[in-house]
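Researcher: Here's the sequence for the chain we discussed earlier.
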Amino acid sequence: MSKFRAFMKYTSLTSLVAVALLCLAGAAQAEKADRSKPMNIEADSLRYDDLKQVSVFTGRVVLTKGTIQIRGDRLEVRQDPDGYQFGVATGAADKLAFYRQKREALDEFIEGEGETITYDGRADTVTFSRKAQLRRLRGTTLADEITGGNIVYENLTDLFTVDGVAKNGPSGALGTGRVRVMLTPKPEAGVSVPADPASLKPSATLGSTPK
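Model: Thanks. This is the structure I predict for it:
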């Protein structure tokens, strides 16, 4: 393959991924009120460091904040002097950490998984690191899905940034180091979308990937 053909192939693929991410991002505005809601956490144990103002929860951790839900095996939470909250959830050895949030004024949800999920209340961002997955569901039906090494979801700007290999993980952590995107057409007004029994659905099990 000539250098020109290789360049054109790379450029076309990059443009396609960019368009796909823009389509998903434009349809993914999260529940605005969640940012100001209180954070509630359940876990098997808690260790609090008063000097560092850090709380570490371990064992079947469940965090809720409005429509936001984060689940993991370990969760580290802190709050800065301005009152903004920050959390880092880590999955178990065989289960990824899990995130879910409702879309504004719609029966749609954004949910995702990763070995580590970082919530930044000041920047209003969620970062999925290593084996990262992000999905949009219409009700319980899978609409769009993105997988990669590292995914950053910016709530304020409805922007997604996806890298094939996790920034804080070993090179080739995903095996292929590729970004993969699956998008479905938006249903026409007045046309109902039947539930697909084979679609990916949210699960109540800690960090499990819906089947």
